[in-house]
Write a structure and sequence with these properties.
- There is one protein chain.
- The chain is mainly alpha-helical.
- The chain has helices spanning 8-44, 48-76.
- Helix 1 (8-44) packs antiparallel against helix 2.
- It is elongated.
- It starts with 7 loop residues before the first helix and ends with a helix.
Amino acid sequence: MRPLAMPPQAAIVPRMSPLLIIVVVALMLALLGVLATGIIQMFRGSDPRRSNKLMQYRIMLQFGLVMLMGLVMLVFQR
């Protein structure tokens, strides 16, 4: 008995899996870097504008990461 052909969207998932995981890990590392830089800046007491900009970057990265994690969960749902 021959297996049925996969639907088109199911064929895309195995190809995109490594890419999604790499992007998630890269975003996590970027978020960690921005967070660490912000904490160091806070202890040094440097420019408040720079601290505010780092906070904005952190919020944007967190939003992107949460959205991407949701996408990964939808893609890997079986």
